[in-house]
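# step 3/5: fold
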Amino acid sequence: MRSQESAGVQNKSANLFSQKTSENTIKLWDVLSGKELRTLSGHGSTVSSVAWSVDGKTLASGSFDNMIILWSAATDDEVWEHMPLDQQPKRSKAQAAKSLQK
């Protein structure tokens, strides 16, 4: 992934520009027309960074709540999410043991 510290980063293979916003979202723009295409929502805090994969198929975003989300450029769906262990919902010992049996 190419890292970007500015307000946004361009995906040249898809003519998309991703822009982090102050509303915990990411806006995708069409580079050629300058029109806003859609808004990606999923973070619980301000988005601090965005980066496109080299092939342009995946957008990674990180936020101040320590979450990382990978988005599909084709569908805008979350394809992967990471939340630190200390922020994950607490499970009982029985729930944890049951998940290990799977």
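# step 4/5: annotate
The domain at 8-101 is CATH 2.40.128.630 (Lipocalin).
# step 5/5: archive (pending)
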